[in-house]
TrEMBL record:
PANTHER family: FLAVODOXIN-RELATED PROTEIN WRBA-RELATED, FLAVOPROTEIN-LIKE PROTEIN YCP4-RELATED. It comes from Cupriavidus oxalaticus. GO terms for molecular function: FMN binding; NAD(P)H dehydrogenase (quinone) activity. This is Flavoprotein WrbA. Belongs to the WrbA family. The gene is wrbA. Gene3D superfamilies: 3.40.50.360. Keywords: Flavoprotein, FMN, Oxidoreductase.
């Protein structure tokens, strides 16, 4: 069969979510996936971004590294993995804007049956990581994605992350994701890819005339 195609669409302001995204990509590629790593774009102007130290500079650097996600990326993918920092206990506006832009594909039913998964980061302990990941399950269900959580299917899950997806707490951006948190993200990439491959193989088998 062809390689599973995995889209990782994320938003990151201070690199924490970006590093998780890269680890998810590494895990997916370990199982032979073709990966598109995309960063959602800002919805506010430079005057607002300058109020948060480093935001404008980090955005420019990351936007140079990653293309913006498009509906065509979602249509291409067998699996879509969303990544976001928590914003008041929920999804970042920048990533939500991308999801909202998938309405045309939703209307045509072109996302039904694709794999969906989520990961995220928060600035403080109990800052909303789990509620943020769960909040993204709702639009994924509406899009028709088959939601793939992590559970405790790998020993690393007893060290870091959540059963809903990889996470990280940056302690006000003082700490980058450590080895255990990155290992959870890599496991997520592998898990999503293995499920996407199995579903794709089933569809291919169903398409073969008896």
């Amino acid at each position: 069969m062809s390689k599973p195609k995995v889209l990782i669409a994320f938003y990151s302001r201070n690199r924490n979510t970006e590093l998780l995204a890269r680890a998810v990509a590494e895990g997916a590629m370990e199982l032979g996936a073709e990966v598109r790593l995309r960063r959602a774009r800002e919805v506010v102007g430079p005057e607002v971004m300058r109020q948060a130290p480093g935001w404008l500079e980090n955005a420019a650097a990351m936007n140079a590294r990653y293309e913006a996600p498009t509906p065509a990326d979602a249509e291409w993918a067998d699996a879509i993995v969303f990544g976001t920092p928590t914003r008041f206990g929920s999804i970042a506006t920048e990533l939500k804007a991308y999801i909202d832009g998938l309405g045309g594909l939703w209307f045509q039913g072109k996302l039904n049956g694709k794999v969906g998964s989520v990961f995220g980061s928060a600035s403080s302990k109990h800052g909303g990581n789990e509620s943020t990941l769960l909040s993204i399950y709702t639009p994924m269900a509406h899009l028709g994605l088959i939601i793939v959580p992590l559970g405790y299917a790998d020993a690393v899950m007893f060290k870091a992350g959540t059963p809903y997806g990889a996470t990280h707490v940056s302690n006000r951006d003082a700490d980058l994701p450590d080895d255990d948190h990155l290992a959870v993200a890599r496991f997520q990439g592998r898990r999503v890819t293995s499920v996407a491959r199995a579903l794709h193989a089933e569809r291919e088998a169903a398409a073969v005339p008896a």
